[in-house]
Prior knowledge:
With 124 residues, the protein is mainly beta. It has one domain: Thiol Ester Dehydrase, Chain A (Roll), CATH 3.10.129.10. It is built from 1 helix and 6 strands, in the order E-E-H-E-E-E-E. A 6-stranded antiparallel β-sheet has the order 1-2-4-5-6-3, with helices on one face.
Amino acid sequence: MFLIDRWSLPSDVRHIAPNVMEAHVFVPKDCIWFSGHFPGEPILPGIALVHAVYETILQDAQDRGENVHISSLKRIRFTSPVRPGDTLLISMTSEDANTETHYIFKATVKENTVSSGLVAVVKM
């Protein structure tokens, strides 16, 4: 089974202004990321949050007809847990920096910041 089978990809990806976008990610209660993390007290692993941010970036790149991959992650913070049934709001701005594009993001659940940081990507 692929992760995509039980993981809700970003939906409603919207450009709010040039270089500013938002996306919603619903985290289903049966999401495979919760398997073993942690029994009796499930929380979404940090890598799953980064994955959701990256999927949003990939959708943005695809809309522009580009293929990208991550070149670095910087200042990634995980400040509150994400629980089964939560909906993430991922807000980000992008800026070109030499050969990379930097996406500065903040992920929130009900206006509570759960993660933030910078994802740098390069064109393939």
